[in-house]
């Protein structure tokens, strides 16, 4: 019974979550909407459009379509300025070891990210070649918590959802994996990702034995 792995990007492979936070916080403040870590948690894994919609909802703001589009562009520009400074050193601890082990053992691997910048980021950190397929924000019409991004990944990898093991740092992403009957593995705060089938603080906890346990589950 073959297993396949799907990795989220932001917050799982690289800590770009902190860059999204800074860029959204600036934007929210410019609109005089308060924005804390707690609100940010709800934006993780959520598409750019839906994130801005949420911020406007929280602040009870309504703006024109033009203003909406220019705010999205502004946020992305600010975010990309952080991304520009990224290098392989930004890969989170243990990720490279896990990817290497999975590749050596011939597991199919896909990326399942909501980000439209996913390919650019993978190039910056030099990880593109580890992925058999990349599904990102440019290829899906329904954002997480809808499972579309992960279902597309399975399709491309040629596996059933039940064969997929998903690494996610967001509540929306864990929901997406669970909805599609994939094994959901929360990376980060267990209290926040309590709906995940398994929880780990980070990839350094994912020893070969642990990975074997996941594939046998
Ligand atoms: P972009 P992931 C998600 O990526 C981020 O978690 C989320 O905070 C961001 O708004 C979303 O991508 C869209 O990203 O603005 O770059 O298209 O965690 O699904 O890899
Ligand atoms: Mg993420």
TrEMBL record:
GO terms for biological process: carbohydrate metabolic process. Keywords: Carbohydrate metabolism, Isomerase, Magnesium, Metal-binding, Phosphoprotein. The record marks 113, 144 as: Important for catalytic activity and assists the phosphoryl transfer reaction to Asp8 by balancing charge and orienting the reacting groups. Substrate binds at residues 8-10, 24, 43-48, 51, 75, 113-117, 144. Binds 2 magnesium ions per subunit. GO terms for molecular function: beta-phosphoglucomutase activity; magnesium ion binding. It catalyses: beta-D-glucose 1-phosphate = beta-D-glucose 6-phosphate. Its EC number is 5.4.2.6. This is Beta-phosphoglucomutase. The gene is pgmB.
């Amino acid at each position: 019974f073959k297993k396949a792995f799907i990795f989220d990007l932001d917050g799982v492979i690289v800590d770009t979550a902190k860059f999204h936070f800074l860029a959204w916080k600036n934007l929210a403040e410019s609109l005089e909407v308060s924005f804390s870590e707690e609100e940010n948690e709800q934006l993780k894994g959520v598409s750019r459009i839906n994130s801005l919609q949420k911020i406007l909802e929280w602040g009870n703001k309504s703006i024109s379509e033009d203003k909406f589009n220019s705010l999205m562009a502004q946020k992305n520009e600010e975010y990309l300025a952080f991304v520009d400074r990224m290098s392989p050193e930004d890969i989170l601890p243990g990720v490279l070891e896990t990817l290497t082990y999975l590749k050596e053992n011939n597991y199919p691997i896909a990326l399942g990210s909501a980000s439209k910048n996913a390919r650019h980021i993978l190039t910056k950190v030099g990880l593109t070649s580890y992925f058999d397929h990349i599904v990102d924000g440019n290829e899906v019409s329904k954002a997480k918590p809808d499972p579309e991004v992960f279902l597309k990944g399975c399709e491309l990898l040629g596996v059933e959802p039940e064969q997929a093991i998903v690494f996610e740092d967001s509540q929306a992403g864990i929901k997406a994996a669970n909805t599609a009957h994939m094994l959901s593995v929360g990376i980060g705060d267990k209290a926040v990702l309590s709906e995940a089938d398994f929880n780990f603080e980070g990839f350094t906890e994912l020893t070969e034995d642990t990975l074997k346990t996941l594939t046998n589950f």
